[in-house]
Amino acid sequence: MSDQSSDQSTPAHHALDFFLARQPILNREQDLIGYELLFRSAAFGPANVKDGVTATAAVIAHASELGLSNVIGNLQGFINVDAAVLMSDFIYFLPADKVVLEILETVKVTPELVARVRELVKAGYVFALDDVVAESEEIEELLPLVKIIKIDVMEVDPSKLLKLSVHFKRAQKELLAEKVETLQQFNDCVTFGFDYFQGYYFAKPMILQGKKLEASKMVIMHLLTLLVRNVDNGEIVRYIKRDVALSLTLLRLVNTPVYGFQKFIDSLGQALIVLGRRQLKRWLQILLFANTDKEKAHAMSPLMILAATRGKMLELIAAKIRPGRRKMSEMAFTVGIMSLVDALFGMSMESVLRQITVSTEIREALLRRTGFYGMALKLVECTEQRDQDQVEMQRLLDELQLSADDFFEAEKYAFEWGNSISTNNIGQQGGMMPMTPPPDGYIDDDDDD
């Protein structure tokens, strides 16, 4: 790979040499407020790990090239920076109002670095200190200039965690707990005064023995399986009628101005024809993960965004590898969405699948991550982890016969698509918003009913 730190005009064509990890960051109400963006080189040689100047500068260049709005929407992007990048002009690729710059724990604090951070703060940049596990003189030097302290809760004893939180709160800093993997850890950090949380605790189910799916959710799940099986409209309408709220919502949906009909559509059969099966399927899948809390009815659900992004990424992968086989793309989208139903319902995947009927291929993908769909799902899950197993990612790419370039394009488009999904547009456009065209070579099924 060329030395991008010495040539700012060339990084664009190297963008596809990288994978992107996007870790959600939530507030105390568990609303999504931003993502930490982590780039990983698709070339697994040690030079790409050791050359901090090249690697970190490439992150900045690629983030700029991607267009942060495509990756994070209207949220904040948290990006790691080292001393070399802080001291370089690469930093100005990033819009100050869209990013939080995380100073890595390995950065040596010098008078020059402190002066540079002060200069960037005056330019409008917001800073966080990454992976703080104890107080130190270096941290104290930077403390007046940073807004957020990130503490690795896996590396700090709970008793010391309380002491750290009190110290930094007295300094009027915002606290971000990272690597929060359980609901108990989240609750402890809330008690200790933390403001933000990073980790997949929100996507991990609390298993409750004997729990049943809510009636409305059960109807939606059965409708989705009927659509996958391609049954006739009459059978679909019969199932929709089982849920009055769902029936009324569907009628309201097709009678919104976006469809432009002069006559009121007053039957479910007509509504299904107007909406089309493809839009109905997407609408139902998104409804599964929509916020049911009235106070958050217009807020983006982190679980919904994650599920939507997984579904779209799997769909694009299937469309690229098996072009022209629309059924496979549709099944891939379903696998992506359903891969989080255990978290949605707070029960094991085995229990969920005992209550609904899915094909053998989908079942094997969800339970064992096997088969074509299981491998694709496993690949997508790898990108969600802060510590990506790049050897495993390359193995899966090879197995699927998918290039790193093609995967990166699917990932980028899926992030943008996932960001467009929120509960405040489901009632307007069936969960769909105007989008840029998908990458070359991918099938766009969204407009084809």
UniProtKB/TrEMBL annotation:
SMART domains, per database record: EAL
Gene3D superfamilies reported for this sequence: EAL domain, Hypothetical protein af1432
Region (Disordered): 425-449
Residue ranges constituting the HDOD domain according to the UniProt record: 213-406
PANTHER family the UniProt entry points to: CYCLIC DI-GMP PHOSPHODIESTERASE CDGJ, PTHR33525
Protein name per its UniProtKB record: Cyclic di-GMP phosphodiesterase CdgJ
